[in-house]
Amino acid sequence: MYQQILVAVDGSETSTRAFEAALQLARDAGAKLQPLFVVDVPLLVYDVPGCDLPHARNALLEQGANVIENAVASMKRAGVQGTPRIIETALSGDDVAHCILRAANDFKADLVVTGTHGRRGFQRLVLGSVAECFLRIAQCAVLMIPTHSGKPVASGAQAAEPIKEPS
């Protein structure tokens, strides 16, 4: 079973689902968990006149600190040990996927959990996919958690009652 689990988090619904899955796995296996937030200031920001790079970076660092704080609180409630980490792409020169790889190697992760939006076709080509790029370069097991569970969501104020099978 896994003993060192790294999970990429960014505060999105997708990464929240990935974190919850990683937390459950870590609790069940008695593994250490490392939530990882990667600060990625896009290169575009460097070329935009009048753009306040330190402000953008500080905002992302603050967001990362909030995401990590929530992850640590959840880990404490679940009784899961581990040390969170925040790293920056600009300092290393790597893209997000390679930063995750470097962090996984540093942590000696035997499993990396990441969310995926499950984009296909043109959307994937245009937007790219950190999860797909990481999957291609990973050196350990990878668990990709989709944005949605695939279960139908009830519309309206209340969820529909489950259908019961006849006895």
From TrEMBL:
Span-the-membrane segments of this chain are none
UniProt xrefs under SUPFAM superfamilies: Adenine nucleotide alpha hydrolases-like
So which domain of life are we looking at? Bacteria
CDD domains for this protein: USP-like
Looking at the record, the residues that make up the UspA domain are 1-146
Gene3D superfamilies reported in the protein's UniProt record: HUPs
- Per the record, a Pfam family? Usp
InterPro entries in alphabetical order: Rossmann-like_a/b/a_fold, Universal_stress_UspA, UspA
The family note in this entry says: Belongs to the universal stress protein A family.
**Protein name (Swiss-Prot/TrEMBL):** Universal stress protein UspA
Organism encoding this protein: Paraburkholderia lacunae
